[in-house]
Amino acid sequence: MSSGGTTGALLYAVSAAVLGMLQFGFNTGVINAPRKFIENFVRDNYEAKPSLIFSVIVSIFAVGGMIGCPLASWMLDTQGRKKALLYNAAFGIIGAAFMGFSKLATSVEMLIIGRFLIGINCGFATTASPTYVSEIAPVRMRGAFGTVNQLAVGFGMTCGQILGIDVILGSDEGWPLLLGLAVVPAAIQLIMLPFAPESPRYLLLCAHDEEKARVALTKIRGSSDVENEINDMHLEDQAAREEQKFSVKDLFTTPALRIPLVIGIVMHLSQQLGGINAVLYYSSTIFVKAGLSEEDARLAVIGVGSILFVMALVSIPLMDRLGRRTLQLCGLGGMTAFSILMTIAFFTYENNTTMSIFAVIFTFLYVAFFGVGPSSIPWMILSELFGQGARSAAVSVGALVNWFANFVVGLTFIPMSEALGNYVFIPYTILLIIFFVFTYLKLPETKNRTIEEVTALFKK
Length: 460
Prior knowledge:
Helices cover 79% and strands 0% of the residues. By secondary structure, it is an all-alpha fold.
């Protein structure tokens, strides 16, 4: 048996890859604090309504994401994992440059194009990075390494939020640099990746180059005793070849696949439509609404990213101990409760500092419960509900649905909050209750079950 532990080469490769996920977190969190300054910029250069244009700047990111996902699936197979990641890093630099120079060029369009391009980059990363990481991680550590992706997202988000406070880059002068800093993870990734190994599984099963696969695996595992693992890959490949290949269309037409697909789609929808992105994109707006000053609101925003980061750490050991179903139900239940309490707090904070503070605490707890399950489980669950033949199609449908829902929330939150005022979280609360009931009735537990056992459940 190969040594199967963590080696320097493995950690290096994982770090290089998850910079793409850090980029995704950064660009999700960074847009929040500078809202006021970006709207000033829009007002100076544009006739249109600033809050509407800001909604577009926020949500065009997710339109890019919807393009990046399928693009990544295609490039991972045609160019190899490593090259695909490299091209994407170079592409990220272009997107960052558009955002960073938009004010110099007094061009709102450049800002929108930059957010769109960095969206493509981040959508690409959310597909490419987890694929590469799961392929190079030792089998028994795959779950732990999988959560590194979530950690990187939380870390990137916190960085974006901290840099956005007034004293650093939260100002009329600072925001272009703040958004342009997306160039940093992309540039580091571009420098690191050439020295990272290609995925041995790609080399063996897609490029059919066993020699190179053995060299790469030896490097990653830090030992030349890789025969067993190479054989396991061959066996898996054989099993995969005997399995029917399913297209996206098949997923919707075959009953045994349709049920798990619907479950997976609903899990992804519950991640986005539970309103979490309203909090992530607009938390400073929400905190100001709850009676905090602008400065305090931007500081409170940092709490949101930090909580996600901490909860990602906490959920690592719980995933395999308590199981996915329990954590998902726990998370959705908590989110439902605290979205109701948030709404109550919004109504009672007038001239009432205590309730203002409670509004913030409830928001934090809502985010914490999101971090327990719904933040990472939808991304894991699809690969656990499907066999090899249907997995990649299912995962890409899930990612697409996720980004689409992300887009809808990003675009509708400001108009919705203008229309509903303090009731703005009620639609999310209703959806959360529906998602909770659905999960309770339909989601099977996947922990400690082989893929065969799980897929057998749906064939009945």
